[in-house]
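hey m, so remember when u said the C-alpha coordinates were messed up on ur end? i reran from scratch. heres the input so u can diff it against urs
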Amino acid sequence: MASWTKIEMMTEDGRRVDAQVPVIVSASRSTDIPAFYSDWFVERLEKGYVKWLNPFSGVPLYVSFAKTRLIVFWTKNPRPMLEKIPGKDETPLDVVERLGLNYYFQFTMNDYDAERLEPNVPPIEARIRTFVDLAQRIGASRHGNDRVVWRFDPLLLMDSLTPQMLLDRIERIGDRIAPHTPRLVFSFIDIQAYAKVARNLERAGIRAREFERDEMLEVAAGIARLVKGWGISAGTCGEADDLPGIEHNRCVDDRLMVKSFSDDEVLMRFIGAKRAEPTLFEHVSAWEAPIKPKKDFGQRAACGCIRSKDIGEYDTCPHLCRYCYANTSSAIATTNWKQHRVNPNADNITGKYGISHPCRKTGFSDFCNRPLDP
Protein backbone atom coordinates (compact mmCIF):
# COMPACT_ATOMS: atom_id res chain seq x y z
CA MET A 1 0.00 0.00 0.00
CA ALA A 2 1.30 3.43 -0.90
CA SER A 3 2.30 5.54 2.10
CA TRP A 4 0.52 8.69 3.12
CA THR A 5 1.69 12.04 1.82
CA LYS A 6 4.53 13.47 3.89
CA ILE A 7 5.37 16.98 5.01
CA GLU A 8 8.23 18.50 6.95
CA MET A 9 7.12 19.68 10.38
CA MET A 10 8.66 21.13 13.54
CA THR A 11 8.51 19.15 16.79
CA GLU A 12 7.93 20.78 20.15
CA ASP A 13 11.65 20.72 20.90
CA GLY A 14 12.51 22.50 17.65
CA ARG A 15 13.58 19.63 15.38
CA ARG A 16 12.51 19.35 11.76
CA VAL A 17 11.19 15.91 10.90
CA ASP A 18 9.21 14.24 8.13
CA ALA A 19 5.65 13.35 9.07
CA GLN A 20 2.80 11.47 7.45
CA VAL A 21 -0.40 13.48 7.01
CA PRO A 22 -3.36 11.05 6.99
CA VAL A 23 -6.88 12.15 6.14
CA ILE A 24 -8.46 9.41 8.29
CA VAL A 25 -7.04 8.52 11.71
CA SER A 26 -7.91 5.32 13.57
CA ALA A 27 -7.75 5.65 17.35
CA SER A 28 -7.22 2.77 17.73
CA ARG A 29 -7.29 -0.92 16.90
CA SER A 30 -4.18 -1.41 19.05
CA THR A 31 -5.34 0.06 22.36
CA ASP A 32 -8.32 1.83 23.93
CA ILE A 33 -7.47 5.51 23.51
CA PRO A 34 -10.92 6.85 24.56
CA ALA A 35 -10.92 4.82 27.79
CA PHE A 36 -7.34 5.42 28.97
CA TYR A 37 -5.62 8.06 26.85
CA SER A 38 -8.34 10.56 25.94
CA ASP A 39 -6.68 13.56 27.63
CA TRP A 40 -3.35 12.67 26.02
CA PHE A 41 -5.02 12.27 22.64
CA VAL A 42 -6.74 15.66 22.57
CA GLU A 43 -3.58 17.36 23.77
CA ARG A 44 -1.73 15.77 20.85
CA LEU A 45 -4.49 16.95 18.52
CA GLU A 46 -3.93 20.50 19.72
CA LYS A 47 -0.16 20.11 19.44
CA GLY A 48 -0.73 18.96 15.86
CA TYR A 49 1.12 15.66 15.78
CA VAL A 50 1.87 12.37 17.50
CA LYS A 51 4.87 10.07 17.46
CA TRP A 52 3.97 6.48 16.63
CA LEU A 53 6.29 3.51 17.06
CA ASN A 54 6.18 0.78 14.43
CA PRO A 55 5.26 -2.45 16.30
CA PHE A 56 7.54 -4.60 14.15
CA SER A 57 10.65 -2.50 13.58
CA GLY A 58 10.36 -0.08 16.49
CA VAL A 59 11.17 2.80 14.14
CA PRO A 60 9.44 6.02 15.27
CA LEU A 61 7.15 7.73 12.78
CA TYR A 62 5.67 11.19 13.11
CA VAL A 63 2.02 11.62 12.22
CA SER A 64 0.73 15.14 11.59
CA PHE A 65 -2.94 16.01 11.94
CA ALA A 66 -2.62 18.89 9.48
CA LYS A 67 -4.87 17.22 6.90
CA THR A 68 -6.96 14.98 9.15
CA ARG A 69 -10.69 15.17 8.46
CA LEU A 70 -12.02 12.12 10.34
CA ILE A 71 -11.24 10.14 13.48
CA VAL A 72 -12.59 6.63 14.00
CA PHE A 73 -12.63 5.84 17.72
CA TRP A 74 -12.50 2.20 18.89
CA THR A 75 -13.38 1.64 22.53
CA LYS A 76 -15.01 -0.44 25.25
CA ASN A 77 -15.54 2.57 27.50
CA PRO A 78 -15.82 6.05 25.97
CA ARG A 79 -17.05 7.59 29.24
CA PRO A 80 -13.83 9.66 29.65
CA MET A 81 -14.56 11.35 26.30
CA LEU A 82 -17.72 12.78 27.89
CA GLU A 83 -16.10 14.04 31.11
CA LYS A 84 -14.37 17.36 31.66
CA ILE A 85 -10.60 17.43 31.16
CA PRO A 86 -8.92 18.18 34.52
CA GLY A 87 -8.45 21.94 34.87
CA LYS A 88 -10.50 22.74 31.77
CA ASP A 89 -14.12 23.48 30.94
CA GLU A 90 -14.15 21.12 27.97
CA THR A 91 -14.54 17.40 27.42
CA PRO A 92 -12.27 15.57 24.98
CA LEU A 93 -15.23 15.34 22.60
CA ASP A 94 -15.67 19.12 22.84
CA VAL A 95 -12.04 19.57 21.76
CA VAL A 96 -12.44 17.23 18.77
CA GLU A 97 -15.48 19.21 17.66
CA ARG A 98 -13.85 22.59 18.30
CA LEU A 99 -11.02 21.58 16.01
CA GLY A 100 -13.58 20.89 13.27
CA LEU A 101 -12.93 17.15 13.01
CA ASN A 102 -15.51 14.56 12.01
CA TYR A 103 -15.68 11.41 14.11
CA TYR A 104 -17.62 8.29 14.93
CA PHE A 105 -17.30 5.45 17.44
CA GLN A 106 -16.87 1.70 17.19
CA PHE A 107 -18.18 0.82 20.68
CA THR A 108 -17.44 -2.77 21.71
CA MET A 109 -20.00 -3.84 24.29
CA ASN A 110 -19.74 -7.52 25.10
CA ASP A 111 -21.31 -9.17 28.12
CA TYR A 112 -18.68 -11.42 29.65
CA ASP A 113 -19.11 -10.06 33.18
CA ALA A 114 -19.99 -13.46 34.65
CA GLU A 115 -16.88 -15.06 33.13
CA ARG A 116 -14.58 -12.17 34.14
CA LEU A 117 -13.10 -12.12 30.66
CA GLU A 118 -12.80 -8.33 30.66
CA PRO A 119 -11.67 -7.59 34.24
CA ASN A 120 -11.16 -3.82 33.95
CA VAL A 121 -14.16 -3.01 31.79
CA PRO A 122 -17.04 -1.32 33.66
CA PRO A 123 -20.09 -3.48 34.46
CA ILE A 124 -22.54 -4.03 31.63
CA GLU A 125 -25.21 -1.73 33.11
CA ALA A 126 -22.72 1.16 33.30
CA ARG A 127 -21.63 0.57 29.71
CA ILE A 128 -25.21 0.53 28.48
CA ARG A 129 -25.77 3.92 30.15
CA THR A 130 -22.59 5.23 28.54
CA PHE A 131 -23.69 3.97 25.13
CA VAL A 132 -27.00 5.80 25.40
CA ASP A 133 -25.38 8.95 26.78
CA LEU A 134 -22.81 9.01 23.98
CA ALA A 135 -25.42 8.48 21.28
CA GLN A 136 -27.61 11.22 22.75
CA ARG A 137 -24.62 13.57 23.03
CA ILE A 138 -23.72 13.03 19.39
CA GLY A 139 -27.38 12.82 18.43
CA ALA A 140 -27.75 16.55 18.87
CA SER A 141 -26.13 16.78 15.44
CA ARG A 142 -27.31 15.38 12.12
CA HIS A 143 -27.07 11.58 11.79
CA GLY A 144 -26.00 11.32 15.42
CA ASN A 145 -27.22 7.79 16.01
CA ASP A 146 -25.41 6.57 12.90
CA ARG A 147 -22.13 7.47 14.56
CA VAL A 148 -22.10 4.97 17.44
CA VAL A 149 -21.70 1.46 16.04
CA TRP A 150 -22.26 -1.44 18.44
CA ARG A 151 -19.77 -4.31 18.39
CA PHE A 152 -20.10 -7.64 20.19
CA ASP A 153 -16.58 -8.71 19.41
CA PRO A 154 -15.23 -11.32 19.65
CA LEU A 155 -17.80 -14.01 20.22
CA LEU A 156 -16.29 -16.98 22.03
CA LEU A 157 -17.49 -20.22 23.58
CA MET A 158 -16.71 -22.01 26.83
CA ASP A 159 -18.13 -25.07 28.57
CA SER A 160 -20.30 -22.64 30.55
CA LEU A 161 -21.06 -20.32 27.62
CA THR A 162 -23.14 -21.70 24.77
CA PRO A 163 -24.30 -20.13 21.49
CA GLN A 164 -27.81 -19.67 22.90
CA MET A 165 -26.46 -17.93 26.00
CA LEU A 166 -24.55 -15.52 23.76
CA LEU A 167 -27.71 -14.79 21.79
CA ASP A 168 -29.63 -14.17 25.00
CA ARG A 169 -27.01 -11.64 26.13
CA ILE A 170 -26.95 -9.93 22.74
CA GLU A 171 -30.74 -9.66 22.89
CA ARG A 172 -30.74 -8.15 26.39
CA ILE A 173 -28.24 -5.49 25.34
CA GLY A 174 -29.83 -4.81 21.97
CA ASP A 175 -33.28 -4.29 23.46
CA ARG A 176 -31.75 -1.33 25.34
CA ILE A 177 -29.44 0.24 22.80
CA ALA A 178 -30.83 -0.61 19.36
CA PRO A 179 -32.65 2.77 19.12
CA HIS A 180 -29.25 4.46 19.46
CA THR A 181 -27.18 2.61 16.85
CA PRO A 182 -27.46 1.74 13.16
CA ARG A 183 -25.63 -1.56 13.27
CA LEU A 184 -24.35 -4.56 15.18
CA VAL A 185 -20.88 -5.81 14.20
CA PHE A 186 -19.48 -9.12 15.44
CA SER A 187 -16.67 -11.59 14.85
CA PHE A 188 -15.83 -15.12 15.96
CA ILE A 189 -12.70 -15.50 18.04
CA ASP A 190 -9.55 -16.81 16.37
CA ILE A 191 -7.42 -18.63 18.93
CA GLN A 192 -5.20 -20.95 16.92
CA ALA A 193 -4.26 -18.27 14.39
CA TYR A 194 -2.97 -15.88 17.08
CA ALA A 195 -0.38 -17.23 19.50
CA LYS A 196 -0.80 -14.16 21.68
CA VAL A 197 -4.51 -14.89 22.16
CA ALA A 198 -3.85 -18.53 23.04
CA ARG A 199 -1.15 -17.56 25.54
CA ASN A 200 -3.30 -14.91 27.23
CA LEU A 201 -6.18 -17.35 27.64
CA GLU A 202 -3.89 -20.06 28.97
CA ARG A 203 -2.25 -17.71 31.49
CA ALA A 204 -5.68 -16.72 32.77
CA GLY A 205 -6.82 -20.35 33.01
CA ILE A 206 -9.66 -19.71 30.55
CA ARG A 207 -10.77 -22.72 28.50
CA ALA A 208 -12.33 -20.87 25.59
CA ARG A 209 -12.80 -22.39 22.17
CA GLU A 210 -13.55 -21.41 18.59
CA PHE A 211 -16.86 -21.95 16.82
CA GLU A 212 -17.76 -24.94 14.72
CA ARG A 213 -19.46 -24.13 11.41
CA ASP A 214 -22.91 -25.15 12.63
CA GLU A 215 -22.49 -22.97 15.71
CA MET A 216 -21.53 -19.99 13.54
CA LEU A 217 -24.68 -20.51 11.49
CA GLU A 218 -26.79 -20.79 14.64
CA VAL A 219 -25.49 -17.54 16.07
CA ALA A 220 -25.63 -15.72 12.74
CA ALA A 221 -29.25 -16.78 12.23
CA GLY A 222 -30.12 -15.58 15.72
CA ILE A 223 -28.44 -12.25 15.17
CA ALA A 224 -30.15 -11.80 11.79
CA ARG A 225 -33.50 -12.39 13.49
CA LEU A 226 -32.73 -9.95 16.29
CA VAL A 227 -31.51 -7.07 14.13
CA LYS A 228 -34.53 -7.43 11.86
CA GLY A 229 -36.76 -6.93 14.87
CA TRP A 230 -34.74 -3.95 16.05
CA GLY A 231 -34.68 -2.33 12.60
CA ILE A 232 -30.89 -2.18 12.36
CA SER A 233 -28.34 -4.08 10.25
CA ALA A 234 -25.62 -6.61 11.15
CA GLY A 235 -22.18 -7.27 9.74
CA THR A 236 -19.16 -9.44 10.44
CA CYS A 237 -15.69 -8.00 11.07
CA GLY A 238 -12.83 -9.75 9.29
CA GLU A 239 -14.79 -12.94 8.59
CA ALA A 240 -14.38 -14.51 5.15
CA ASP A 241 -17.46 -16.77 5.38
CA ASP A 242 -20.78 -15.64 3.94
CA LEU A 243 -23.53 -15.89 6.52
CA PRO A 244 -27.24 -15.63 5.63
CA GLY A 245 -28.74 -12.28 6.59
CA ILE A 246 -25.36 -10.83 7.59
CA GLU A 247 -23.21 -8.39 5.61
CA HIS A 248 -19.44 -8.11 5.48
CA ASN A 249 -18.69 -4.99 7.48
CA ARG A 250 -16.36 -2.08 6.80
CA CYS A 251 -15.48 -0.69 10.22
CA VAL A 252 -13.61 2.25 8.70
CA ASP A 253 -16.60 2.75 6.43
CA ASP A 254 -16.87 5.05 3.42
CA ARG A 255 -20.64 4.44 3.30
CA LEU A 256 -21.10 5.75 6.85
CA MET A 257 -18.88 8.72 5.95
CA VAL A 258 -21.02 9.63 2.96
CA LYS A 259 -24.18 9.40 5.05
CA SER A 260 -22.88 11.37 8.03
CA PHE A 261 -20.21 13.75 6.70
CA SER A 262 -21.26 14.60 3.15
CA ASP A 263 -20.74 18.30 3.84
CA ASP A 264 -16.97 17.68 4.10
CA GLU A 265 -15.88 17.87 0.48
CA VAL A 266 -12.23 17.12 1.26
CA LEU A 267 -13.20 13.86 2.97
CA MET A 268 -15.65 12.96 0.20
CA ARG A 269 -13.03 13.42 -2.48
CA PHE A 270 -10.44 11.45 -0.52
CA ILE A 271 -12.69 8.40 -0.20
CA GLY A 272 -13.60 8.61 -3.87
CA ALA A 273 -17.26 9.57 -3.45
CA LYS A 274 -19.01 10.85 -6.55
CA ARG A 275 -21.48 13.66 -6.97
CA ALA A 276 -25.02 12.49 -7.66
CA GLU A 277 -27.23 14.61 -9.85
CA PRO A 278 -29.99 16.57 -8.09
CA THR A 279 -33.50 15.16 -8.31
CA LEU A 280 -36.86 16.89 -8.49
CA PHE A 281 -37.07 16.58 -4.71
CA GLU A 282 -33.47 17.55 -3.88
CA HIS A 283 -32.23 20.84 -5.27
CA VAL A 284 -28.59 20.21 -4.37
CA SER A 285 -26.44 17.33 -5.52
CA ALA A 286 -25.50 14.65 -2.99
CA TRP A 287 -22.54 12.34 -2.71
CA GLU A 288 -22.57 8.62 -3.47
CA ALA A 289 -20.18 6.11 -1.91
CA PRO A 290 -17.60 4.76 -4.35
CA ILE A 291 -18.39 1.50 -6.10
CA LYS A 292 -14.85 0.30 -5.39
CA PRO A 293 -13.70 1.51 -1.96
CA LYS A 294 -10.07 2.33 -1.13
CA LYS A 295 -9.35 -0.89 0.78
CA ASP A 296 -6.74 -0.77 3.51
CA PHE A 297 -4.31 -3.44 2.34
CA GLY A 298 -2.48 -3.26 5.65
CA GLN A 299 -5.35 -5.22 7.23
CA ARG A 300 -6.38 -8.87 6.94
CA ALA A 301 -7.62 -10.12 3.60
CA ALA A 302 -11.21 -10.41 4.85
CA CYS A 303 -11.18 -6.90 6.34
CA GLY A 304 -13.36 -4.45 4.43
CA CYS A 305 -12.02 -1.25 5.98
CA ILE A 306 -10.89 1.62 3.83
CA ARG A 307 -7.54 3.24 4.38
CA SER A 308 -6.72 4.95 7.68
CA LYS A 309 -3.68 5.59 9.86
CA ASP A 310 -3.74 3.89 13.25
CA ILE A 311 -1.93 5.84 15.98
CA GLY A 312 -2.23 3.35 18.85
CA GLU A 313 0.45 1.11 20.28
CA TYR A 314 0.28 -2.55 21.26
CA ASP A 315 0.86 -3.61 24.86
CA THR A 316 -0.75 -0.49 26.30
CA CYS A 317 -4.38 -1.43 27.06
CA PRO A 318 -5.19 -1.79 30.80
CA HIS A 319 -8.56 -3.45 30.18
CA LEU A 320 -6.50 -6.67 30.31
CA CYS A 321 -9.13 -8.73 28.49
CA ARG A 322 -8.27 -12.41 28.82
CA TYR A 323 -8.57 -13.04 25.06
CA CYS A 324 -6.66 -9.88 24.03
CA TYR A 325 -5.18 -9.69 20.54
CA ALA A 326 -3.17 -6.54 21.27
CA ASN A 327 -1.38 -7.22 24.58
CA THR A 328 1.50 -9.65 24.79
CA SER A 329 0.75 -10.02 28.49
CA SER A 330 -1.14 -8.24 31.27
CA ALA A 331 2.14 -7.48 33.03
CA ILE A 332 3.65 -5.66 30.05
CA ALA A 333 0.46 -3.70 29.39
CA THR A 334 0.24 -2.65 33.04
CA THR A 335 3.89 -1.57 33.08
CA ASN A 336 3.40 0.55 29.97
CA TRP A 337 0.25 2.13 31.41
CA LYS A 338 2.13 3.07 34.58
CA GLN A 339 4.91 4.53 32.45
CA HIS A 340 2.37 6.66 30.60
CA ARG A 341 1.11 8.01 33.92
CA VAL A 342 4.66 9.06 34.79
CA ASN A 343 4.96 11.07 31.57
CA PRO A 344 1.38 11.71 30.35
CA ASN A 345 2.33 14.65 28.14
CA ALA A 346 4.84 12.83 25.94
CA ASP A 347 4.35 12.77 22.20
CA ASN A 348 3.94 8.97 22.20
CA ILE A 349 1.54 6.86 24.26
CA THR A 350 4.01 5.03 26.46
CA GLY A 351 5.83 8.25 27.33
CA LYS A 352 9.05 6.40 28.05
CA TYR A 353 11.38 8.74 26.27
CA GLY A 354 9.81 12.17 26.32
CA ILE A 355 9.67 14.25 23.18
CA SER A 356 13.29 14.20 22.11
CA HIS A 357 14.35 10.65 22.92
CA PRO A 358 12.71 8.13 20.60
CA CYS A 359 13.98 4.63 21.17
CA ARG A 360 13.91 1.45 19.12
CA LYS A 361 11.69 -1.49 20.02
CA THR A 362 12.75 -5.08 19.81
CA GLY A 363 9.68 -7.19 19.26
CA PHE A 364 6.33 -5.90 20.52
CA SER A 365 7.22 -4.53 23.93
CA ASP A 366 10.88 -4.62 24.96
CA PHE A 367 12.57 -1.25 24.49
CA CYS A 368 16.27 -0.48 24.57
CA ASN A 369 17.62 2.60 26.32
CA ARG A 370 19.71 4.00 23.48
CA PRO A 371 18.37 7.26 21.99
CA LEU A 372 18.03 7.16 18.20
CA ASP A 373 17.45 9.86 15.64
CA PRO A 374 14.11 9.42 13.85
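this time it looks ok to me. Confidence is low (pLDDT under 50) at residues 354-374. if urs says something different then somethings off w ur setup not the seq
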